[in-house]
Amino acid sequence: MPFLVIMVRRLNRLKKKIRLHSEGNSTLLWGGLTLALLCLIFGWAFGFQSPWFISVLVASTVVYLIVVNFFRCPIRLYDGNTEGIIIAPCDGKVVVVEETDENEYFHDRRIQVSIFMSLFNVHANWVPCDGLVKKVEHQNGRFQAAWLPKASTDNERSTIIIETPEGEEILVRQIAGAMARRIVTYSAQGEECFIDEHLGFIKFGSRVDIFLPLTAKVQVEVGQKTTGNQTLIATLSD
Fold it and tell me: 3-state class of 133 per DSSP?
C-alpha cells in the first residue's frame, strides 16, 4: 500500500507541473503500476544490473512518457473577437478540406474540414464556436484508421450540432480511430457553449470533422498543423 500511495502522490505532483487531463487519471495510475511491476519481475528474475532489466526499464519509461504526453491538457484562451468564426477544435493536421454531401443531419452540400490527431498530439477537444448545442448523438461503429475517408461515416463517433448566434448550424464530429476506444463528449443538448470551453476528449489516436455552410470562408489548407482553441479554421458569412 505505501507504494500505491507514493504513485498517487507523484502522479498528482506531475499533473500540477504539466497539467494533465482528468481523463487520464486511471490510465496513468494503473498503467504506471503495471509497468513498475513488470520491471520488478524482470529485476527479480534476471538481476537488477542485467541488460534484460535495463532494457525493460528504459522501454517502460519511454512508453509511460508517451502516455503522459498524450494526456496533456494545456490551458488556452482565444485572444480575439469570437463573432462569426470557427476555431480549431483540436491539435493535429488538416487532412481534408472539400465540399461534400453530409447525409446524416443536413442532407445537403457542406464544406468538410477534418483534423487528424496522432498519438503525440493533445487529445482534448475544444468548442469551435459560440452558440447553442442543438443535438448530441453517439453512434457505434468500426475502428478503422482515423485518416481514412470512410472513418467519418463508418467509425464510432459522436456528433454535436451547434447553432451560432448568427443562425448558422455547425456540425462537429468526434471520430474514434484504430487505437481509440473511448470518445467523451461534455457538451449537452440545450446548453449554451463558448469558445475556450472543452468539448470532450478522445483516447489514443482519432479525428475531428467540422461541417460548415458553403458560404463559409476556410482559412486552412490540407497539410497545415492546427492548435486547438487557437487556429482559425473559417469565417462565416455576414
Answer: strand
At CA 88, angle to CA 83 and CA 91, rounded to 5? 155
pLDDT in tens, 70-112: 777 788 899 988 999 999 999 999 999 999 999 989 999 999 9
The C-alpha angle with vertex 161 and arms to 132 and 214, in degrees rounded to 5, equals: 105
Query: What is the per-residue pLDDT across 32-64, written as a single tens digit (0 to 9) for each?
Result: 788 888 888 888 887 878 888 888 888 888 888
Q: Which of 26, 114, 206, 237 is catalytic?
A: 206
φ and ψ of 163, to 5 deg: -100, 120
Give the dihedral sign, CA 45/51/55/57. positive
Instruction: State yes or no: is 158 an active-site residue.
Output: no
Q: Which residue has the cell 497545415?
A: 224
Pairwise CA distance, residues 172 & 88, whole Å:
11
What is this structure's pTM? 0.75
Concatenating the DSSP letter of every residue in 50-77 gives SHHHHHHHHHHHHHHHHHHHHTB-----
- Please name the residues in contact with 9: beta carbons below 8 A apart, sequence gap of 6 or more: none
* 14-18 contacts at long range (C-beta below 8 A, 24 or more positions apart): 14/68, 18/68, 18/72
Amino acid at 173: R
Q: What is the pLDDT of residue 144?
A: 53
Q: Is the Cβ–Cβ distance between 56 and 189 less than 8 Å?
A: no
Q: How many whole angstroms separate alpha carbon 195 and alpha carbon 192?
A: 11
Q: Look at residues 28, 59, 55, 31 and name the one whose alpha carbon lies nearest to residue 43.
A: 55
Average pLDDT over residues 161-184: 83
